[in-house]
Amino acid sequence: MAFDLNGIDIHTPSRYAHSFPWAEWEVLRREAPVFWYERDDIEPFWAVTRHAEVMVISERPKIFINGGPRLRLALKGETELLRGGLDSFGQSRGWNPQEPPDLTFMDDPQHREVRKHASWAFTQGCMRSFASHFDQLAAGFTAEFLAELEQGGEVDFVRHLAAKLPLAAIGEIIGLSAGDWKRILVWSNAIIGEVSPEHVLPGETLLQAAERFMNEFRLYLEELIQAHRKPGGGPSDFVNRLVSATVNGQLQNDQQLIGYLFVLIGAGNDTTRNATAGGLVALLEHPEQRDLLCANPGLISGAVDEILRWTSPVISFLRTATEDFQLLDKTIRAGDTVCMFYPSANRDESVFTDPYRFDIQRNPNPHLTFGFGAHFCLGTNLAKAELRAAITALLPVLPRLKLGGMGHRIPNTHVSGFAELPVALA
Ligand code: HEM
């Protein structure tokens, strides 16, 4: 397909409502892998679309910082996610407007210190100890889903299955009560702007409902933190350790702890849900791969990695250059913004043989779905453990499933995937 590079659109959220801009990214990788992207409705940025340059940027956190003015794409006039400044909730508590909302906005040395207060709970070893529990949860959720399918008609895979395990799993790790999972799901969806009409009160706009959910979520976390600050601590080991951990010799305050729990609970929900739903679509659209996996469940690890490469639920993250830097034939100037497109890096033909082939036996599979370097996804092992449990539980049912209508994708340039995915029994 012929494209005028100055006419392509890879920045408008609605462009992502039907599929990712694969053809546009392919042209960029081939003709302009470091491309100065200027459009009327967005501040300009360098679009970086190849695997090698995403790595070059990610492994230089001093030159390409997270703590600059932009971390996610936002159209002019729109507020970037979590950048709204202090709202009435924060103001009423005297929060510091300069405080980074969470660790993704921080740089070293603060970032390294803050990150280690949670990373201990997400190691491979910790995940192995949760594995059989995740298997049980996944089996239970899949049985409920099957029971609904057996009543006839189409059932939304996202809501009735894919959304459940990510929340239950992070809830178990943090030590949240199972009775709270449902409302936490509603709240954490609101962070990414997904508010379902059934949760909106009479006379309330969607925006007002989203604000109410954000406040309810923060109030819930505030009470959780306070309960764990009491002498002797609270019921959750994880929260006990978090409230007593110091950064630069000081305990973290409520604002910092709420931000931390907020990102830990929020970051793994829509991402893993999208990977699960996109993984189901990939397996059903490639029946030979589905049959191979069903006949050889031992291929699950490779299948999980290929699903992660294939679905790439996090589309982009931005960095700000702190000094001039030569990237290929382009000079990135100090203060410029670079935008890394992970799904494009995951289709880079110079790294992946036949990148548009879904192949659960792909080896090696050095995908960048979880980013790279200092900010490499803290929940990588958890996300993989969840996907492994979810897909394994589905295996006995997979040959009986078929895709229903088209589904409905999330129009977003940061995290995207299926908001709704109707499936039925074949
Ligand atoms: C398929 C699921 C997931 C995907 C695709 C994903 C992807 C990513 C990506 C691309 C980044 C940024 C990496 C970078 O800047 O180099 C990130 C960071 C992060 N992710 Fe995930 N993630 C997933 C699941 C999870 C889960 C389950 C958690 C739960 C704890 C989580 C927590 C985080 C946190 C806290 C960060 C910030 C790390 C930092 O700034 O140091 N993610 N993730």
Tell me about this structure.
The structure is a single chain. With 426 residues, the chain is an alpha+beta fold. The chain has one domain: Cytochrome P450 (Cytochrome p450, Orthogonal Bundle). It is 45% helix and 12% strand. The protein is built from 16 helices and 14 strands. A 5-stranded mixed β-sheet has the order 1-2-10-7-3. Strands 4-14-11 form a 3-stranded antiparallel β-sheet. Strand 8 (325-327) and strand 9 form a beta hairpin. It starts with 21 loop residues before the first helix and ends with a strand. Protoporphyrin IX containing FE (HEM) is lined by residues 58, 103-104, 115, 122, 170, 263-264, 267-268, 271-272, 275, 313-314, 317, 342, 369-373, 375-379, 382-383. Residues 58, 103-104, 115, 122, 170, 263-264, 267-268, 271-272, 275, 313-314, 317, 342, 369-373, 375-379, 382-383 line the site of protoporphyrin IX containing FE.
